[in-house]
Amino acid sequence: MIKFDTLHKKWMKDPAYRREYDALEEEFALIAARARAGLSQAQLAKRMKTTQSAIARLESGRAKPSTRTLARFAAATGHRLKISFEPVKKGKKKAGK
C-alpha cells in the first residue's frame, strides 16, 4: 500500500495538481490553524466555549462565521486574525470594447 504523503509529494511536482492544491489553501485555513496549535476539535471547542460539532461545521465550510467567531478561533489557536481586501485580477480586454 502506498502512503498518501508519498503520493502527495509526487503529485505536487505536477504544475496542474499544484495549482489546484494551492487554490484550496483558503478552504483549509481553519483546519491548518487548529493543526498547528496541536488541538483536536473537542479541545478547540472547549477553549472557545462551544461544541465540537460547531467546530466541525466551521471547518467544513457549512457555516459562515462572523468576524467575532473567527477572532475567537484565532485567539484559541494562538493566531492573529487578518482580513484584507485584495484587487481582483482583471481579464484581458477584448478588441473593440
Overview of the structural elements:
There is one protein chain. With 97 residues, this protein is an all-alpha fold. Helices cover 55% and strands 0% of the residues. It has six helices and no strands. The longest helix is centred in the last third of the chain and has 10 residues, at 67-76. It is flat.
Helix content: 40-55%
Radius of gyration: 18 Å
Report the oligomer: single chain
Mean pLDDT over the full residue set: 88
Shape: flat
For the biggest sheet, the summary is: none
**Structural class, judged by helices and strands?**
mainly alpha
Strand content: under 5%
Contiguous uncertain segments of 5+ residues: none
Count of helical stretches: 6
End-to-end Cα distance, whole Å, is: 56 Å
Key features?
single chain; 97 residues; mainly alpha; 55% helix; flat
Task: Please give a quick description of this structure.
This protein is mainly α and 97 residues long. The chain has helices at residues 4-11, 15-23, 29-37, 41-48, 52-60, 67-76.
Chart the SSEs and their pairings:
Blueprint: H1 4-11, H2 15-23, H3 29-37, H4 41-48, H5 52-60, H6 67-76
Helix pairs in contact: 4-5
